[in-house]
Amino acid sequence: MQKQPETYCDTLLGFTLPGRDVRGRLVRLDGVVNDVLRTHNYPAPITHLLSEALVLCSLMGGLLKGEGAQMTMQAQTKAGVVRLLVCDFRGGAMRGYADFDREALAGLGANPSLSALFGEGYLAITFETDTGLGVIERYQGIVPLEGDTLAEACEQYFKQSEQVPTLLRVASKSGQDGRVAAGMLVQHLADGEEGRERLHVRMEHPDWEHVEALSSTISHEELLDPDLSMEALVWRLFHEEDEIRIQVGEDLARGCRCSAAHYEAIIARFPKEEQDAMRNEAGVIEVDCAFCSRKYELNA
């Protein structure tokens, strides 16, 4: 039997531990994260923050099933240095953007904390799935933006909004070839069931405590090691389990969905007087895409 190639970067890897009612996702972003970052000249703290957000978005978005399914993560505050951080995932296509006060950020030092960046902010996570009947089901959970990292805030989201015990680990670093970011998501599901609208689980369970303890041993170096396949990483953590099932997921890429037609459709919703007010001296409406920095000149 021919051996399947192993997975290293820019592809999701799913795994389950049937004997423990556990599922997980692993990802290592290389080309994707650099494609997103290079469209803006972000300073180091924002580069690190957005890299972490892209990893989390891919891990959580990778839980979705069905065409057209989308996951959006948005962190926002009224008075913080980072006014808005948003990432989304759809069918392996990812995009991300951060809006921040550059002058205020410069006064925070090299490694500002999450609370220093956002103040009293909140995290909104939205899942959209296509029922296949032309109906989009949408669910959103909002939690305070608390903890030392975005990963900790997302753990609280799953605990409070989904009632699913979840462990998230994220690592990120810059090198000569750009940035590499990676992460792991592990969840305990009641009776091994997936897809129920609400999972009634105990946050303390022997199987979960065992897997959580093993998962917590993963290091940043292991997550980021370009020579360590994600299959090998799963085996390193859980090789004593009776069964490990591996499933290679979607290939990931930067995927901004902006287009002239998209913006023309949005502008068409405004009254003619407001559309005229948007035009420059040449009679053109100029639009910049916040995600990819493309500029569109619309004559309609």
Question: Any descriptors?
Answer:
single chain; 300 residues; alpha+beta; 6-stranded mixed sheet; 5-stranded antiparallel sheet; 10 helices; globular
In short:
The protein is an alpha+beta fold and 300 residues long.
Distance between the termini: 59 Å
Strand content: 25-35%
Q: Could you give the count of β-strands?
A: 13
Rg, nearest Å: 21 Å
The main sheet orders its strands as 7-6-3-4-5-11
Low-confidence stretches: 192-201
List the helices and strands in order.
Answer: EEHHEEEHHEEHEEHHHEEHHEE
Note the main sheet.
6 strands, mixed
- Roughly how much helix do the residues carry, as a percent range? 25-40%
Shape: globular
Mean pLDDT: 88
Instruction: Count the DSSP helices.
Output: 10
Structural class: alpha+beta
Could you explain how this protein is built, in words?
With 300 residues, this protein is α+β, with helices and mostly antiparallel strands. It contains ten helices and 13 strands. Strand 12 (285-288) and strand 13 (295-298) form a beta hairpin. Residues 192-201 have low confidence and may be disordered.
